[in-house]
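[step 3/7] fold_predict: job queued, chain A
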Amino acid sequence: MHILHEIIGVPKLKIDAEGKTNATLTINPLPSGFGMTLGNALRRVLLSSLPGTAVTAMKISGVTHEYDTIKGVHDSVLDMSLNIRELRLKKHSKEVEEIEFKLVKSGAITAKDLKVSSDIEILDPSQVITHCDGADPKTTVKLRVEKGVGYRIISNEDNAAEEDAEMILIDANFSPVTKVKYEVTPARVGDQTNLDQLKLTIETDGSLEAENALKLAAEIIRSYFDLFNQDDAYTDEDFTTSFSAIRAKEEAEKQASVSAAEESFTPIDILGFSQRTLNALVNGNITSVEELLRTPMSQLTQLRGFGQKAKTELEEVLRDRGYTPGVPLSQQTNQPQL
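[step 4/7] structure written:
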């Protein structure tokens, strides 16, 4: 991790989920250039490497190729296959499964007409597959459903390897992510003005929640970079650090500050000042020996009721107790006698 984070702090990550299909990730501050680096890497993995479900082949009785037509069906087989490619399904297991639907005498055929098992969910039942007008209702269309990753383009070799000659193979887009957009804007922390803020929005088809898609993409990226550090990881201590080290340092400083505040409060009245001098100090919000020693004499003399007499008394009392006036308690050379 960039050493700059020791100055600007650990980046703050926020994921705002709008239902299951939409989410917005915001992360800042980042060193200059890291917004583009992270945004582009996440976008590429989100679109290409997450598992999803798609129809990979179709079979219609009496039809042997996608350029054919079916009597009583408005769409050609090619147009029907394009509609089938857009079906949004969710499959729980990775085994290949066949589903089917029948043509109707007249009317529209939608995704809700599909006959599926309990292993498959239809995410958009209103998706139109085709329209019929005088079609044979006995005609059955079978679809092959698979779970996979990325985009699969059918080649001549795939068609030649297919055992069922009537099966028409279809290019398949398995990605559950339908839209990814990222934006890098300027960010600032103190004097550091050339920092980045990354905002990434994602939309899925519902088969994978948007927030989980972001987390899975990040884990995939991390797993590949771990390959470089499997044996002996190399770091440059002068220019690199880690989030855990920064958090540990911040926590240690916080605990030290709390402990110091709890352990270093000695009531000022233990010094035995006269009532007038004590009242002047307390009214000036100086209530402990530690705070008194930290306060310069020039500031004390500005307190109401703190005159020359009080100044002389304070110096005498501090010397009698073993304190050196104007020197913080942590820097006193001799152990004071309270």
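[step 5/7] annotate
The chain is about 30% helix and 25% strand.
The chain has three domains: 5-50+180-229+237-247, 51-173, 266-331.
exit 0
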